[in-house]
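Hi Q.,

Before the meeting this afternoon, I wanted you to have the D-xylulose prediction in hand. No need to reply - just skim if you have a minute. The sequence and ligand are here:
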Amino acid sequence: MQEDSFLGLDLSTQSLTAVLISLSGGVTHQFSIPFDEAYPSFQTRGGVRVGESSSEAFADPRMWAQALDDILLLLKNSSLTGSIRAIGVSAQQHGTVYLKRTFEESLKRLDSSLPYHRQIQHVFSRDLSPVWMDSSTQLECREITEALGGPKQVAGLTGSVATERFAGPQIRKFWKRHPEEYASTFHIALVSSFLTSLLTGQVAPVDGGDGYGTNLADIQSGHWSRKALDATAPGLLKRLPRLRVKDEIIGPVSPYLANRFGFKSDALVVIGSGDNPCSLVGLGLLGVPDIHAVSLGTSDTYFGYMRELEDRERSEGHIFGTADGRFMALVCFKNGSLAREAVKNWYGLHWDDLSRILLETAPGNQGKIMLPYFLPEITPLVLEPEIRRFGGLQAEDIRGNIRAVAEAQAMAMYLHSGWIGPRPKGLLVTAGGSENLGLLTVISQVFGAEVRSFEVKESAGLGAAIRAAHAFLGTRKRPVGWIELFESVVKPNVKKILRPSAEAVEIYQGPNGLLSLYKACEQSALH
Ligand code: XUL
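Predicted structure with the ligand bound:
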């Protein structure tokens, strides 16, 4: 008999990944489908399509449905679906999917001889879903902020100041510009709840991990906020998914899933969540406030667990919910791997060259600084992208520019994460960039903290699989706790790597160190 396994699906910006775990073997299988290469007809670059203005970013939800079908067929053809006891979903946060009344009916009537996307072509009331890279709702953010009494009030109520990429401002823009399509919208799903709806065959709820990243929820009560909904669009409550504050099982897989892909009919689906709250679980940091995570993916994110809500004013960063019904703090930087890649490509280099140059060059870059805003930046908020150089950095200085982009990203993370609370005693670095020893070194020197890297790059998919295992085991006589799961499935992936020297840290954190210089450059660019 095959051992029980648990599936995590991670629908990120650029790909859909499946991570399978077993309790004795940790990660046993991993598959990934990159959108650009697999689905050229959807015309994405890096998984997204730019809209009329460069600040708009969309994806076609039909592409996500097609990828789901393809990855589940891959699992079926590898004889892996029959042993799966539960499925967890992680998805890029903030994106919204607009669905007609016929959505739920169509899910119930799916014919298991045909793929999803052939059968749900017409359930969308809006063809394209705005995704997290969209920064086109500045006006709507202002309107919502005004209606709710100012930025502090919005942040206190919803966990974030009104934020361009969040569902609330995006929905408001859609309602204002396309009132008829809005009127024909019966459900608005987040990407995570859209995917779990496809798996269960019913309109699925959303968790606090994803639901708090909308500017629509009251994070103290864990309910949609009437005030925030009224400030956003009319008749919104009935269109939103139910909101749940912690993990729960939302149903068995649909008959379609069992018949088409060979799942057991009693395989369970756990509530979906955002990729960052899933990464928190995949890194074993749920319940661990003194180690923070750095995820070096398409976006760079910095996040940490919070047992209680801090009663402090905030003008940046976000509070999301967690799988255990508590909170996490997060700061997101849009110019993550895209910016590193752009600098690398200027000079025709490979990732290895980038790492080598970072290890060979001296911390502090002799005072040479870059503000690497290749795209509009989320933190700090920069809507007009521009690359700026300071301290005598010249465009033809290859080593200087490589060091400058890596230092800028690490310093921005340091400067904009201070609000989270006491500095962490260590950092766990994950996602694609965590393989790069040079980047890890720079981060440890800027933060003056021990940095460990995480061997499994897919921490979000792993987290989704662990959430599935936790929910399934919770239905057993002897439930298995998070800590026990982390011991068996997460710990083996943590590699201890680096401790910075005191001299290197001093170069950044000392009086008149590079951090204060960088802060001044940032300020001058922002004003
Ligand atoms: C977080 C954010 C991004 C997306 C990318 O607030 O916008 O990290 O979740 O997947």
